[in-house]
Amino acid sequence: MEKLARQQVQALTPYLSARRIGGSGDVWLNANESPFNNEYQLTLNNLNRYSECQPKALIEAYSAYAGVKPEQTLTSRGADEGIELLIRAFCEAGQDSILYCPPTYGMYSISAETIGVERKIVPLTSDWQLDLPNIEANLESVKLVFVCSPNNPTGNLVKREDILTLLEMTKDKAIVVMDEAYIDFCPEASTVDLLAQYPNLAILRTLSKAFALAGLRCGFTLANEELINVLLKVIAPYPVPVPVTEIAVQTLSEQGLVRAKQQVAELNQNRAYLAQGLAALEGVTVYPGWGNYILVQFIDGDQVFKSAWDNGIILRNSPIENCVRISVGNQQECEKTLAFIQSALEATAA
Questions:
Q1: CA 335 to chain centre
Q2: Which residues carry this modification: N6-(pyridoxal phosphate)lysine (predicted)?
């Protein structure tokens, strides 16, 4: 069967998600999930009918939350499907390219490779900002430029002035895709206000993080109406299951939004606690972060990761040397993780 697969698929290394990597323990801080397990009510009385392609109630609820028009909003099976839709809709296999800037989210590359679209890589600068001169020098054949802010795994925000420069640079040439999966933890940094000025801007959003619905698989693409209409040509006919719509509409209700805001505030407090505690340890560098995770550099990051793993605290290894990404959990999880790392480092130093 392997030989029957397309050549690109035969050579493909699948994205190693947190669940594929696995682990066994009682503290899971490896997937940037929310620790809150909220309850919802389902009617489940219309499952014999297909769902709408773009459920009106869901589109209206999220567009109101995001501050855009319903016709500027598309919902999909997580932001991951939004990535794939954009590549499928705008890139010719074997002809066009995407451009992305590592270290960053891995699915931009995987989605392009799966479809047979070339990938151009322009690494972030030493302070994890866009290398604009090198991006400009590599724009030939590029249709999509992916920018993640807050960036995963580094946690930093991309400078707004650089995003504006990039949008001007790519006018009538390429679409800038802002991945705002973590923007709900710092909504003031969103680029949604730029949609009115830049038709070559698309924004990816999700309910997985701040809304504690990682298992629901519900994401959104925000863009001008013309771009959304192109995506509607390639999306599956029934992309959003009926129960997904019911739950998502509840979480985007007035009561649900109040709860999400409270939970985000608590997670931001826990992030500050965890960052401050880790930064006080000798030989530890904590990088400023604006999502529900922090990037931490140790003298021996692999050892810290393995030691925590062996003790049931599941963190996420980073491609950045000696760095570990730690999701922000509830207060008890953060306290347990901080205490374990402190004791592990003290034992190593003894």
A1: 25
A2: 209
